[in-house]
Amino acid sequence: MSDVKKLPLRSQVAVGDCWDLSSLYASDQAWEADFRQFEQQISGYDDYRGRLGESAQTLAECLQFDLEIDQLAERLGTYAFLKTAEDQANQTYQALVGRFQSVAVKASQIASYMRPEILEIPAAQMQEYMDAPVLADFKLVLERIVRYRAHTLSNAEESLLAMQGEMAQTASKAFRQLNDADLKFGSLDNGEGQEIELSHATFSEFMKLPHREVRKAAFEQYYERFADHENTLAAMLAGTIHGDVYYAKARKYPSALDAALFPITYHAAFMKTIESVHSQLPQVRSTWTSVGGGWGSPTCTPTTPTCQSCPILNSVHGPRRSKWSSESLKPLGSEYCRDVTKWLERSVVRSLSQQRQAEWCLQFVARFPLIHSF
After folding, report:
1. Which of 40, 118, 135, 261 is the most buried (most CB within 10 A)?
2. Half-sphere CA count of 146, side-chain side, radius 13 A
3. What separation in angstroms does the CA of 138 have from each of 57, 134, 253?
4. pTM
5. Is the Cα torsion angle 359, 297, 221, 202 positive or negative in sign?
6. 291 or 133, which is more confident?
7. Secondary structure (DSSP) of 332-356
8. Three-state DSSP class for residue 262
9. What mean pLDDT do residues 2-21 have?
10. Distance CA 247, CA 161 (A)
């Protein structure tokens, strides 16, 4: 077993191959300082309670305060989440996330009066507010709030729902711990006499090897571990679904799907896409089963003798990586390309897979969503 090639621990990887979170916080101590500020500032919501209909100026001040709190919370939450993504078994950063979520839920509870109060403002007065120069930056925010009128509850009901925020995440938290920290997949021979640890990071590489029997063995061994926990996974999924249904009913949506798609104004197109996919699934399943016996080897067969899974991670480094990104992203504009290039040059993209670390694209997609949309 000592000859098994394993993924390195986070602590064993060179700093240049790890993402750089210093643009968020230079240290945990800096995070702690902002966290204390966050805890203290959320009580400021009470200064505006019952006053949002006074004037456009008062409403603008409240929305600006909410924006500043939201920006601080996003910075704190992103840092804590990405730290746990480095190693889901690291209890220090699990505690960091837990502390942040606890205060974030408290902030949500204190601020829960805002939407009901805004919706109590008469339509004519609200239109005057939205036309006021002082609220120009928040016009879209107010339009979206008004759109949610039918699904907004009373102050007391909104406060109760906000209090449930941390509890409602239990099933998804349990899944992340099981999936990212506790599941072990063993090791496999790669067909060339080398024993390699099978993990989330190496599974996709196994599935691109030229040896069909190796791909099949990797597929079966990988998903066998999930099958071993099928009852636990089913309970987690059921818990998440029950939560979605509960919140949809509480907010008077026809279904959980309608609730999920409501923020998208053109959600009817999504519904048609879902219906189309569902109508084709029986044929896809039949074809897949007849070709591959129900496993994924045929869909992952490499088409070249040497298959590099990701040009960014495997063959594009340093200046070449920056040039590659700049050239390929030119259609998105010079400012966008400049930001991406700057981000890549700061060594935030790791070139090595690391044990228990989530994919670097978590940070990349969050910062540059247009690339993800392609």
Report:
1. 118
2. 15
3. 12, 9, 26
4. 0.65
5. negative
6. 133
7. G-HHHHHHHHHHHHTT-S-SS--TT
8. coil
9. 74
10. 8
